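Section 5.1 Outputs to date
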Amino acid sequence: MRSSAPTLAQRKSKRRRLITSSAGRIAWSTPRRGAIVERLRALFVESLHIEVPSADTDLFETGMLDSLQLVELLLQLEQQFGLRIKIDDIELDDLRSLARIARLLAEHAGAADASSARPSSRASERDASAAKG
């Protein structure tokens, strides 16, 4: 029996589609990245008690982030940034450094902005019903 679960390549492709703007570019700006990195740096100090020397420091290879701290990081990202990652969608490379986490957060914010700009299907149905009635 084959599993109907999407492959890693399919999940990455879906995520890319979700975070790509209408012009086909990923929503990402350098000033925003800097602000996100600074918020992340503060989160690491305050919540995880870790001082990260640079935005590109590999948190796993240096041993700065262990499995328990990774779970705490995921919780903090959800609470402070609204980023909820399903267990099947966790890509450790996205969480490897502050810069990569910032990119993930910026992409998430861009996807959220794009989805809020489009009316929901329920709103469209409601508007269509109101126009008929």
